[in-house]
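Predict structure. Chain length: 196.
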Amino acid sequence: MPKPLTLIAGLIILVASFLAMPFILSSCSKQELPIYGTSIEFSMTGTDGKPFGTNDLKGKLWVANFIFTSCPSQCPRMTEAMAKLYRSYALDDKVHFVSFTVDPDRDTPAVLKAYADGHKINTTKWSFLTAPVAVLTKVSVEGLKVGTSENPLFHNDRFVLIDDKLRIRGYYDALDPEVLSKLFDDIATLLKVSQS
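Prediction complete.
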C-alpha cells in the first residue's frame, strides 16, 4: 500500500507537469520558424562600387528591405526602424542588413553611400545595393518573393528575414512596433539554432 506522502508527492509532480506543459510547448514552437522558400544567389554593387552578394552573406542571418533614397514617405521611417535592429546587432558578425534600391537609375553607389552616411550607418554591417533592373527584379520576385511580375520593383513596408542557408524565415511590417519586436525575437531564435 503506497504511503500518503508518496501519493501526495506524485500528485504534485503530475499537476506541476500539467501546468508547465503550455510553457514547454510554447518554448518549442518559438524555435520553429516557418520556411517560405529559398532566396536565389545574386551579386550586386555596394556603396564602395564593389560587388556584394550572397557569397558575402554565407553563414549569416540577414534582414532585407527595398527602398529608394529620394522617397519622401515610408523609406525614411523604414530606414530608422532598420537602424534600431542594426544598432542592436552592431557587434554580432552573424547578423547583416541589406537595403536594395528600387530606383537604380538614380541610386548610384555614390548616392547610396551618401544616404548611408547621412543616417550614420556603417556599410560593413548594412549593405546598400544597386544593380540593373533585370537583376533587382529577379531578386525581388524570384528571390525574396516580395514583388510581382506586373510590379517587380515596388517598395513596400516589409522586412524579410533570411537565415544562414538563404532560407526565407519571415516577413514583417517595418512600421509596426509589435511586429518589429517579433522580428527581434525571431533573429534571437535563429541565432540560438545556428549556434546549437
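Summary: The longest helix spans residues 4-30.
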